[in-house]
Design goal:
Blueprint lengths: L16 H6 L8 E4 L6 H5 L5 E5 L3 H10 L2 H11 L6 H18 L3 H14 L18 H10 L1 H4 L6 E3 L3 H10 L1 H4 L2 E5 L17 H13 L3 E7 L2 H10 L3 E9 L13 E8 L10
Parallel strand pairs: 1-2, 1-4, 2-3, 4-5
Antiparallel strand pairs: 5-7, 6-7
Helix pairs in contact: 3-6, 4-6, 5-6, 9-11, 11-12
Bound molecules: S-adenosylmethionine.
S-adenosylmethionine (SAM) binds next to helix 9.
């Protein structure tokens, strides 16, 4: 079944979101923090927590999500993006504006957020710096505009979500100091994967970065869900040092079919490490 999303994005959890939200804690946590928000796919599938925070170190994504988090922002954004034509020229202009950044571009936050969204919708493989998706049987101006209109109800889900543009590790350090707050929080931790080669503006590739991250997550209070492929660092720190429970989520294609060829790509199992045990299925 096709899962509706704000746009395609590298490492997006649209297909896994339903399973992941079923594994989350609601009654004992009135606060939900998505520390590596990306395109916010978990919010779309998730029941509401009283307080909800979207965080990402990518300031372009935060600019977009700030607009999405208010009714006025959303309607202005949708109205504006429907004025943009679907073409390689506008796509290239969007990427040029994004390269200069919000301040240097001299345009308003609304206009900048529109270019961020437009770029994600029109770039190959959900990569902000990807090439134009082109015009063909599957995608043209009308189809893109219809897809945007089809998203309107879903976008309302972002109403009231607090948006922060911080390094996740700094947020975790701060919440370690505020145990009362952390203990009533469900943390969703979908960092760039260990040894990944995605084109995020901010990445976490190396073992040392994941060691520091896992150690901080282990010391944090509350309910924590960490996503990733299986790897020795998470086993050693999350499972053996901090007693996390490891669950298999689902096998998914590791890379998208970028070249358009028919060959099967490498597949890898998706896991979550939870700070709380689940009853029943999934446990290894
Ligand atoms: C795997 S993606 C998240 C995908 C998201 N769950 C979704 O479904 O769309 C990882 C995200 O982490 C962000 N990121 C990378 N390093 C970060 C850091 N140190 N602090 C906060 N965000 C970071 C990237 O910008 C990227 O958007």
């Amino acid at each position: 079944m096709e899962q509706i999303s704000v746009a395609a994005y590298m490492g997006a959890k649209c297909r896994l979101a339903q399973i992941l939200v079923a594994m989350m804690v609601y009654m004992k946590a009135n606060r939900y923090v998505d520390l590596f928000g990306g395109l916010g796919n978990l919010f779309i599938q998730k029941p509401v927590h009283e307080i909800e925070v979207y965080n990402d170190l990518d300031s372009d994504l935060c600019c977009l999500f700030k607009q999405l988090s208010t009714g006025g922002g959303r309607s202005a954004l949708v109205k504006r993006i429907l004025d943009f034509s679907y073409s390689a020229e506008v796509h290239d202009k969007a990427q040029e504006i994004l390269r200069s950044g919000l301040i240097k571009s001299g345009i308003s936050e609304l206009e900048y957020a529109t270019y961020v969204w437009y770029d994600l919708l029109t770039s190959m493989n959900g990569n902000k710096t990807g090439a134009f998706r082109g015009i063909n049987d599957k995608i043209d101006e009308n189809k893109v505009k219809n897809r945007i209109l089809h998203k309107l109800d879903m976008l309302e889900r972002f109403e009231g979500v607090q948006v922060t543009n911080r390094n996740a590790l700094d947020v975790i350090k701060e919440d370690i100091q505020n145990k009362e707050l952390a203990d009533r929080t469900m943390y969703f931790l979908d960092s760039p994967y260990f040894e990944n080669n995605a084109g995020y503006s901010h990445n976490m590739v190396f073992s040392k970065e994941h060691e520091e991250y896992c150690d901080l997550v282990g010391r944090l209070g509350g309910y924590k869900m960490v996503c990733g492929y299986d790897n020795p660092v998470y086993q050693k720190i999350l499972v053996e040092k901090y007693g996390f429970y490891k669950y298999l989520v689902k096998e998914v294609a590791k890379t998208m079919r970028i070249g358009g060829g028919d060959e099967l790509r490498a597949r890898e199992d998706e896991f979550v490490w939870l700070s709380y045990p689940l009853k029943g299925a999934y446990q290894l």
